[in-house]
Amino acid sequence: MTTWEFPCPDPASIHISAWATGSVAVSGEATDVITVEVVPSSPNTNLDELIEQVRVTFDNGRLVVKGPKKYGLRLRTGLDLTIKAPAGSNCQAHTASADVSLVGQLGELGLDSASGDVTVASASGAATVQTASGNIFVDRANSDVRISTASGDVQVGHAGGELHISAVSGDLEIGDVAGQMDARTVSGDIAVRELSGGRAELGTTSGDMRIMVKPGLGVYLELSSLSGKVRSDLDEAGRPDDPAGNVQLRCRSVSGNIRISKSLAA
User: Fold this and answer.
1) How do the pLDDT tens digits run along the chain, 266 residues long?
2) Rounded distance, CA 247 to CA 41, Å?
3) What are phi and psi for residue 51, nearest 5 degrees?
């Protein structure tokens, strides 16, 4: 195990790059010290040579962590990186197949992974998450979020700002959304547990859509599917022709089914 410590009373700017395999964990918590720890992913593996290639620098509130320059082609394990930083710290991370986990209270986030999964507990600032085949889970986002994945699934618990999601074959599962939402997937399904305001535009090619709207809101609907079934369980009184309702919902699919209903809060 190799550890670095740096005094840091204020939120930091964290930059992680070239982390190929293993895992990355960043925690925003009540502390005035940044701690960086690197260990082999497998406790029975000696990777001292790789650990020695890790570069960690801290200057004027900016923490930079660079992974090893080269990983052996036959390497079956990697390095686990753990960072503890003051609450509100921003984080930028670029990984290959390493899983990324961000917990505690963090600020702005920018995450880019090829095949690793990404988990975000809470983000107070804008967040951008991109993967090729990794799954993405964002529990709570208080600002704008942009998510892009090819074959990974996406889960968002709460979105307080604008939410933009683009996927190819992954399913999209969203908890509650209060702001503008734009979500599109080709063959995946889209499910929204509670839509409570703003404008939502959802689109699929062959996936199904199930959208639940908070009771008591005026909703403007535009629903279209060429060969799928379209159904709305909303009251007529809650579906005004005036687009200036509390919620504007547009759903388009080629062959998928679309169903709109009241949220379970009813």
Assistant:
1) 899 999 999 999 999 999 999 999 999 999 999 999 999 988 777 788 889 999 999 999 999 999 987 655 445 568 999 999 999 999 999 999 999 999 999 999 999 999 999 999 999 999 999 999 999 999 999 999 999 999 999 999 999 999 999 999 999 999 999 889 999 999 999 999 999 888 999 999 999 999 999 988 889 999 999 999 999 998 754 444 454 457 899 999 999 999 999 997 54
2) 47
3) -60, -35
Write out the two tokens for 129: 């998450």
Of 174, 172, 217, 212, the closest CA to residue 195 belongs to 212
Please list, residue by residue across 225-234, b when 16 or more beta carbons sit within 10 angstroms of its beta carbon and e when fewer do. beebebebeb
Tokens of 225: 């599917």
Contact 113, 134 (CB under 8 A): yes
